[in-house]
Every structure is written in C-alpha cells, then in structure tokens.
Structures
1.
Amino acid sequence: MSHDRVPRYNALIRRGIDDRDLYRRALAQVREPGLQALLAENLHTLDLLIHDLQVQAHASGQAPARHGTLAGAIRSTLAEWTAGMSSNRDSAWVRSLARNECALLHRFEQQMAHASRESAHALGVQLSRLHSIHRDMHCLAGTNHA
C-alpha cells in the first residue's frame, strides 16, 4: 500500500489521547451524576478507539503513539482553569469537550478522505464511535457541529 494512502494513525492516536486526558480531568471535576456517567462511557469509548488505532498503526508498519501532545496538555490545563473560573463548572467542561470533539472528528474526516479503501473502512468504524460522542457533547452543550 502506498504510504501516501496510509492514514496518519499516530496523529489520530495522539489527538485521541489528548481528548481522553481531557475527559479524565472533566470526570474528576464534574458534579452531576448523570454527566459523570456519560463522561465515563465516552472515556471508555475513547480508550477503545485509541487501542484500535494503535492496532491499525502497528498493522501498517508504524510504531503506535503512546502519548498525547504538548498542545493537548495545554488545552486541558486551559479547560480546567476555565471550568474553575466558571459559575457552572459542569457546563464549562461540556463546552470544552464539545470543542475538542469537533477537532478530533475533523481530523478523522480529513484522514478518511485521503486513505485507501481498506484504511478508510477501518477509520469509518472509529468514526461512528466518534459521532456518538460528538452528538452527546453537542446536545449537552446546546451547540451544533462546527
């Protein structure tokens, strides 16, 4: 398979790890039990997504990424700071998570557009997982996909 058509799995993995870390921070700080349950479910989905992408990376001959990015750590810190300053911490976390989901979803769509048919199919399975998380967060945030 041409390397031009192999998705940049590690870029997706690192972004997924960044989002997972943000979910972990949010889960530790939100107060509403229903939101905690939803975040825990989405966190589990992200764990599965990251693992599956790591398997795909390995299968395509890449060494799978194991860590997020510096930018992701900065985004998480800013989200935590913003939530701490907010009068409604839970809502602030939901808005931050919704924004990050948009970015991850966009990255997946970009990678799928340039992937081989086989790779696009593998990413499509993950994309359906992301759409579910995306809908959850945007429904709670009262926003649309941006």
Note: Helices lie at 9-29, 33-59, 70-85, 89-114, 117-141.
2.
Amino acid sequence: MKYYLLSQRLDLLGEYGIAAFSTKMLRSYFPDEPEVSFKKSLDRGVKSGMLERVCRGAYVYSREFRRQIHKLESIAVVLRAGEFSYISLESALSEYSVISQMLLNHLTVMTTGRSQTFQTPYGTIEFTHTSRSETEILDKVIKQPERPLRIASPELALSDLRRVKRNTQMVDMDVYEEIIREKNNPL
C-alpha cells in the first residue's frame, strides 16, 4: 500500500478519536492489500514515526495519540477487543481516593478475557480475568463520555479486590464508607 494511503486512512480515523489499533483492526482497513505488502507498510509506518508499535499486536497513530488523555485505556480497549473490560482494583480505588497510592503509568483492568500484563511505552496495563457476567457488571460500572473504558463503582472495585485476593490493607475503610454514605444519601 502507498504511504499516503495509510496516512489518509489514519487521519480519517483520527478525526473520530481513533488512534490505537490492533494489527487485525489495521488489516481490516486494507482488505485487498497482500499480506507481505501490508506488513512492509506497517514497518515503513513505524520507521517514519507515523505509527508506534506499543506492544505485540498493538499500534498507535502517533500524531493523534499524543492528543489523547487516557492513553493506557485506549490501548487496553484494543488489546481486549471483543471482551468486556473495565477499570477496577487499585486503579479505580485510587481514583476514588480510597487508597493513598497514586497509580501513575499503571492501569488495572478487570476483563472477561484472559489475565495478562502488557508493558507499553506509556505504562503497564494489567488485565485480571473476572468470571462475572456482563449483566452482573453493567449495573455496577460508570461510563464517562470522555473515557474509553467504564470504571467500577467503589463497591465493585473493592469487591473485585477481595475476590481476586489482592492487598486490601491499603484501603482506607473510613474514606470508603464516607464515599458510600455520600453516594447513598445525596443532598
């Protein structure tokens, strides 16, 4: 494929806020391209700096990706395409200030897919498998329009932490209970 064609299609996708891709996704945008030519085009895109390979099977369109706020979340969506995933465990509890540690460059995600950890230039993405059904999860996660992933409610995040037997000693239960009280008794 021609370099300009790759650039054109990535620009178009970037207009819709799409800047992270799996190899499979990129391949679907060029269905008539022979496999050898497609792979060479990806390599040229990486060498030129247009594309960045962030981990095995995942790329970002450099120009658009640098504008994104939730970089690790965008990559996580691509890595677990077709699976239900949401921010939980330490990442969610940190956002709710229930644990004192700020998780910079580390994202903890519950997924119906398999557990796996990915190291990227933007940080670590840690997927932990959940056997909960999507319907069981949906009522307990929050969708924020500007974010690629839903985030667990404080109750679900703490339940997930306990369920996967992670360190619960870092949880400030006084803060947690105050958040739950405020949530249940809004002014």
Note: Strands lie at 20-22, 51-55, 58-61, 85-87, 106-111, 116-120, 123-129, 141-142, 150-152.
